[in-house]
TrEMBL record:
Domain Formyl transferase N-terminal: from-to ranges: 4-144
Annotated gene: purN_1
GO BP, sorted A to Z: 'de novo' IMP biosynthetic process
UniProt superkingdom: Bacteria
Pathway membership, UniProt: Purine metabolism; IMP biosynthesis via de novo pathway; N(2)-formyl-N(1)-(5-phospho-D-ribosyl)glycinamide from N(1)-(5-phospho-D-ribosyl)glycinamide (10-formyl THF route): step 1/1
Protein's UniProt name: phosphoribosylglycinamide formyltransferase 1
GO terms for MF: phosphoribosylglycinamide formyltransferase activity
GO annotations of cellular component type: cytosol
Keyword entries, A-Z: Purine biosynthesis, Transferase
Pfam annotation, one family: Formyl_trans_N
E.C. number(s) listed in UniProt: 2.1.2.2
Hydrolase recorded as keyword: no
Amino acid sequence: MSNRIALLSSTGGSVVKTLLRNNPDINLDLIITDRKCPAENISDEFSIPNVRIDEKSNIKFSEKLLEILISNDIDYVVVFFSRLLQGNILNNYNNKLINFHPALLPDFPGMNGFERAIRNQKKFIGSTVHFIDEGMDTGKKIIELRYHRKNECKDRLRHIVFSQQVASLNEVLKNLKNNRALNTLGPENKNKKDNTNLDLLSKESLLIYNKLIQSS
């Protein structure tokens, strides 16, 4: 039996929606939000159950989230979410909460990471997939994709990072649905000059990335 996977989102859900439209073999088992947001529309378009948790306190939200995950037999959670998870969920779902961050870490953690990376004028921009721990974007990295900036405008760079995230999500979901372990990045993938890390992607995920890059 394949892993059951939930999406936790407080955003527009455009990364997830784009992947589901481009790869019909990918599916999710539950969508969880903390507010009315466009991510809930994915539930209608793809017939995925949706639960909204109206709770302002992070710890109480995390407690209710844990209850929902357990009651729905969820094995892993992919996270596009702006709040910190706290309490027992971090132990119960250790190495099973997977965050998708639109910037390179540890340089640009937290909110507005992409915008801060653009202003910083560093040579590389990129995106990071990592396990969630008790810190702010401090968990072990699973995928880090980088792009060597040239003279692209901000919108083009945003589309590149968006495409990275769609491809990374495909890679993660494909592995989880096939019951394959998610390996964390080793020393060979860190601090490599001029390394985009696209070799971390399977052929299928790389095809999705290239298709999206060429579409804009």
